[in-house]
Design goal:
The protein is mainly alpha-helical and 174 residues long. Helix content is 88%, strand content 0%.
Length: 174
């Protein structure tokens, strides 16, 4: 004898199976390619930014008279920000939607990239790098989840790899 809860659960599983089967049949469209390229460009600049600070710091150390400990703090601030961003924005994306959060995190790290160019002191650079890290840390996991939810399992590996390869290219260009 089955009860109403069992019937509802079976119906729920059948609906999920239908959605998954439909996703597997969808082709890779121009819109998906555009989405991958757009988000990939953000990933490229994530990597570029991570490494670009290494080229700027020697000049800034001299100009702003930064101590080795403070240089370490500036570098660490970006990574601490990434941890904060990943934890906060990953869960927020589940509540308000990945695209909204992804758009905000990209705008945040781009704004902080630009702000770093106009930093006037070591402390301002540290703050901008932290906020930049928050944006980057939020963008990476949300972008990965967002891209993967639109492509079937058979095509997902290649599709995602071509998105992720832009990160090492960003490092190389830096």
């Amino acid at each position: 004898m089955t009860n109403l809860a069992d019937v509802e659960q079976i119906s729920h599983h059948q609906k999920n199976a239908e959605i998954i089967a439909r996703l597997e049949r969808l082709p890779v469209t121009g819109r998906l390619q555009f989405m991958r390229i757009t988000i990939g460009i953000a990933t490229f600049f994530d990597a570029y930014t991570v490494l670009a600070i290494a080229f700027a710091l020697p000049q800034l150390i001299t100009e702003w008279h930064l101590t080795p400990a403070f240089v370490g703090a500036i570098i660490a601030a970006g990574y601490v920000g990434q941890l904060v961003g990943a934890i906060f924005f990953g869960s927020l994306a589940e509540k308000v939607g990945r695209l909204k959060v992804l758009s905000f995190t990209i705008l945040l790290f781009v704004a902080m990239d630009i702000s770093c160019l106009f930093a006037w002191s070591g402390m301002s650079l540290l703050i901008f790098r932290f906020l930049q890290g928050v944006g980057t840390g939020g963008e990476v996991p949300v972008a990965s989840a967002y891209i993967n939810e639109f492509i079937g399992a058979e095509k997902r590996g290649k599709f995602f790899l071509l998105y992720e390869v832009l990160f090492p290219l960003g490092l190389m260009f830096a």
